[in-house]
Design goal:
Blueprint (H helix, E strand, L loop, with lengths): L1 H18 L10 E6 L3 E3 L4 E10 L3 E3 L10 E14 L2 E12 L5 E4 L2 E5 L4 E5 L3 E6 L31 H55 L3 H19 L8 H8 L2 H16 L5 H23 L2
Parallel strand pairs: 2-10
Antiparallel strand pairs: 1-3, 3-6, 4-8, 5-6, 7-10, 8-9
Length: about 300
Amino acid sequence: MTEILKSLVRVFRMGVFLCTSLPLTAQQIDVRGGFLSDSIKIGEATAFYLSAQYPSNLNILFPDSTYNFGSFEIQKKKYFPTHTAQGISRDSTLYYLTTFEVGRVQTLSLPAFVVNPKDCTVIYSGTDSILITQLIAHPPDSLRAQELPLKENTAYQKVFFLFNYPVLLMVIGALIVVALIVFLVFGKRIRKHFQLRKLQKNHHTFQEGIATFIHQLNTAFSVPVAESALVLWKNYMEQLDARPYTKLTTREMMLLENDNALVKNLKVVDGAIYGHDTKVVESLEQLKAFADQRFSKKLEEIKHG
């Protein structure tokens, strides 16, 4: 209660100083300052007022945030408008300060700078003090680690896993950049490599399938087998040449390919399917050879494309 009354008295004294008008001579300058509280805790902010009363023809400057406040650190400041009456000006500022020093008593005195044509005159306020409230009345003496009053606890303590997301994002970003560089430099080669692999795989599957059908027809003629062999050939050629072989009749394919040997072999296969002509193996061998030639041509186009 006593500290609160002291603080109120200080604020009252400051207000009286700022508001009263005393007749001063032309060269009289009065600078005052002080804490608005008697004590603070370490790290707690307190206000320090700085006021000056001077002839209005002078230019007075107060410290800004770059000023060295000694053992105190400035948090913020509050300026009050200059009040002038009967040739006397009054300025005042509140500085909100904090300290982390452990000394029992901290003192502070702030200056006002009178700007002259050639230099500045410094006038300091009176020094005021403030008490630092001690939270630990009797700090323990220094002890060796072996003598510290530690409690032993061997029970397992669960520690939550903290994933390092910033590192993950940096790694992902680096991988994306590397992938873009690789794509720009080797993209064409990579695409060509996968095209060749797919082309060779499809051709190998076709060769195995058509060879199986030819072997079955060599053993015993079957219309479904002959039809399946022709469908396999058309599907493969359509995929290889990007032409609608499966939708074309033999007559339409003759107009598309303009290859008499191909048309002849297709007619033989059609005759085997619809006319039960068993002499179809040789024609299927020729169709397989035609597909192999087209495959080799496509392979060269991709390699040198």
